[in-house]
Amino acid sequence: MINKISWDICQEISDEILFAGLDILKSKTKTSFDNLKPIDFDFGNYLISESGRFYYIGESKNINSRLMQHSNKKRSTFYKNYLKKYGELANLQINEFDLQFMNTNIGRKEIEEFGIVNLPTILNKFQIGKRKVYNGNPNQKLWENVNNNYNNLLLEGETAFLKQKYIDWYDANPPDNAGIYSVQHIKDGLIYIGESSNVEERYDTHSGTTYFSAFRRHIGTDILNFFLKNKNGQRQKRYFTDSEDCMVDKYLKKCKISYMKINFGRFELEEHMIRKYHPLLNRKENK
Question: What is the spatial distance between Cα 194 and Cα 173, in angstroms, rounded to a whole number?
Answer without folding.
Answer: 16
